[in-house]
Amino acid sequence: MKIRSVEAIPLAIPYRRPFAFASGKATAADHVLVRITTDDGLVGHGEAPPRPYTYGETATSIVTAVRELFAPVLVGADPFARERIRADLARTVANNTARGAIDVALWDLVGQACGQPVHALLGHAADEVRVAHMIGLGTPAEMVADAVEMSDTCGVEAFKVKVGRDLAHDLAAVRELRRELGDSVELYADANRGWDADTAIVAARRLADFHVTMLEEPNPADDVLGRRRIVRESPIPIVGDESTITLGGVARSLLDRDADAISVKVARTGFTDSAKIVGLCEGLGVTTVVGNQIDGMLGTVASTALACGLRSLARHPVEVTNFLLMSDDVLTDPPVIADGRSGARQGPGLGVAIDPDKLARYRADR
Amino acid sequence: MKIRSVEAIPLAIPYRRPFAFASGKATAADHVLVRITTDDGLVGHGEAPPRPYTYGETATSIVTAVRELFAPVLVGADPFARERIRADLARTVANNTARGAIDVALWDLVGQACGQPVHALLGHAADEVRVAHMIGLGTPAEMVADAVEMSDTCGVEAFKVKVGRDLAHDLAAVRELRRELGDSVELYADANRGWDADTAIVAARRLADFHVTMLEEPNPADDVLGRRRIVRESPIPIVGDESTITLGGVARSLLDRDADAISVKVARTGFTDSAKIVGLCEGLGVTTVVGNQIDGMLGTVASTALACGLRSLARHPVEVTNFLLMSDDVLTDPPVIADGRSGARQGPGLGVAIDPDKLARYRADR
Fold first, then answer.
1. How far apart are the C-alpha atoms of B159 and B178, rounded to whole Å?
2. Cβ A123–B272 below 8 Å, yes or no?
3. A292 part of contact set with chain B, CB < 8 Å
């Protein structure tokens, strides 16, 4: 089996409502669909979400990187040869989500060629995982309403709360969430680098009072000593995300005590490097959590497959609700969240099909 | 697909000649063949070599662990569910090669179910790898004769030289090997914990003069400060093997500076944990080398598949010649080493078949 063509198709799908967080705001999904076709007619898909505030990529840069830098390396290669392809693509730095989407598409092809779903190839740790919902910045009332809706409609019992603004406002929101949702739900927090170290240390202590379990990216990790001071002083684990976007970066961050736990995202490290990061973190005794790059449906399916594949990822609720922000998408079957859980797809590869009418409607290059 | 039965079959296969090293001597292969059969008739195999001086296991303990502890967990499970099975088996400590053989047999089944060879499932880094031959202890003349024979008959150009006895004797052997084999071959050394720290530091410097590239297990790693002093003082990398037999053990050893590089063995960590160890070591920037547990043909095929699957392992010569010590084995097709290389098998799973007559002849339980 050899790769015949690699396409990068920019999409434009409106959001139902904007999603706000300390480092930015998202209002429409300008994701790039990566489609890899083999000489025996299999088609694999991956999705690259442009996140300039995290990776410096735009939809245009992703399309260009895939077409001009990566496609020439991929065409003619065997999709199974992910280790070789990974090394070849690594000659280009950055372009994280472009590379992540290619790796996801390769695993989609490998799964189809094997007649097996990706989570089974990874190790089949679980058939379904608990779901965590991400609550964007807003008034305390808006944030509570969002959480209650997800609890009522989908049974979700874990919430990642965006914080990182004015601390009093953040704490008021967390207090309301804890009061409305009760003690049995898990709350954890993500400041998206919005605080300075002194504020973050106070915040971590106050958040712990509300039984918030973890705090993600409290300040910029490049505020080197400040970040280490937070990790040292915080009563709850500090999660690395934007500061831990590669395998080597995860190792450096953990050895330098910049983080206690790691958010793993298919969108940037695909399946191949995500599994390596999990190996690294298991060896070091570090918790890993499946994060969400404000993924569309395709990325959501991939994230769920990753979590269901590897046991340490299946143990914590998985962030897979962001696709609900989008008004629509290009998959024929949207992900299902029920009873607070999401299941791995049983079809070969990612188990997804692209709706040709929707692809025609939402593609931004025609 | 569900596991229907798990068998542990003790074998007794004479060696052509004994193999000596600083911590022991092997004269016959009392390996245990693990055979896992599924409800749809697939049969997967793995091989557990009892190495009491490394893991505390005997053939009897392996057979007992597989039959009494592991089979009840495995029967009824899906062979794809390696992450769940791994966690279940991990409730029993030690028994490393018993567990390794089970994981290898599970991957053999997974590959057969997918119609793909294991190295392709792992990432298909290479179709073939360079081979390293292990030279047991002997007189310098005997050791040179062994190396020259492997060079002449199989084109091997990398040799792991057993050392760890009287240093003058060891250095005489290495000097002769370098003189006879020339400068272009790779020589590396394995002391199997035979020296004390002071001797090892002198040895490392002298071995470096002969362009020996690495030194494995120079002294007992439990001589804690002594080992760290060797790692600090040695001009060549110190490789952990007997002291780094689990994922967590590898992490601890590297963080404690007990080793600079890691020997990875399918015999003890199967494919699943070996891949995790490679992820850990890649993240930490640490060299990994595929080692040999004096494997028979089945273990040799598995080691080659691992090395061909993962790129960091495919880069260094792979220790896969020890099966030549055995007078025979139970596979229908022995591994082939030619032009200093060994190739991954192309058949599904491990791509091996057991010869029923040979199995009947060599099984030790009937």
1. 10
2. yes
3. no
Closest residue in A to B311 (Cα) is A83
Residue B86 sits at the chain A interface (C-beta within 8 Å) = yes
Whether residue A23 is predicted with pLDDT greater than 90 in this model: the reply is no
A69 touches chain B (CB under 8 A): no
**What SS3 class is residue A161?**
strand
Q: Most A CBs within 10 Å: which of B276, B288, B308, as the mutation test of the A interface? A: B276
Q: What is the residue type of A71? A: A
What residues of chain A lie within 8 A of the CB of B126, using their CB?
84
> Which of A78, A109, A134 minimizes the C-alpha distance to A271?
A109
Structurally, at CATH architecture level, domain B3-115 sits in 2-Layer Sandwich (3.30)
B171-230, pLDDT tens digit by residue? 999 999 999 999 999 999 999 999 999 999 999 999 999 999 999 999 999 999 999 999
pTM, two decimal places: 0.96
Copy the structure tokens of residue A256: 């330098």
Structure ipTM:
0.94
Q: What amino acid occupies position A16?
A: R
> Do A120-343 and A3-115+357-362 fall under one CATH topology?
no
Give the model's confidence band at B343: pLDDT under 50 very low, under 70 low, under 90 confident, else very high. Answer: very high
CB of B248 less than 8 A from some CB of A: yes
Distance CA A199, CA A197 (A): 5
CATH number of A3-115+357-362: 3.30.390.10
For chain A, the domains span 3-115+357-362, 120-343
β-bridge mates for residue A342, sequence order: A129
CB contact under 8 A, A84 and B311: yes
Cite the active site residues of A. Answer: 162, 190, 216, 241, 265, 293
DSSP line for B309-362: HSHHHHTS-EE--GGGGBS--SBSS----BTTEEEPP-SSBT---B-HHHHHHH
Nearest CB to A82 within list B80, B124, B279: B124
Q: Do B279 and A284 touch (CB under 8 A)?
A: no
What DSSP string describes B126-150?
-SEEEEEEEE-S--HHHHHHHHHHH
Q: Comparing A164-178, A218-232, B17-31, B155-169, which segment has the lowest mean pLDDT? A: B17-31
Q: Which residue has 């944990």 as its token pair?
A: B273
Q: Residue B216 catalytic?
A: yes
Which contacts (CB < 8 Å, 24+ apart) does range B330-334 have?
A: B330/B11, B330/B13, B330/B33, B330/B296, B330/B297, B330/B298, B330/B354, B330/B355, B330/B358, B330/B359, B330/B362, B331/B297, B331/B298, B331/B301, B331/B355, B334/B297
Instruction: Please state, in angstroms and rounded to a whole number, the distance separating the CA atoms of residues A174 and A170.
Output: 6
A97–chain B nearest CA distance, Å: 19
DSSP B273-296: HHHHHHHHHHHHT-EEEE--SS--
Give the nearest partner residue to A124 out of B80, B284, B311, using CB atoms: B80
- B210 touching A, CB under 8 A? no
Q: Cβ distance A221 to A227 under 8 Å?
A: yes
Phi/psi of residue A335, each to 5°?
-60, 150
Considering only CB atoms, which chain A residues are within 8 Å of B84? 123-126, 311
- Give me the CATH topology for the region B120-343: TIM Barrel (3.20.20)
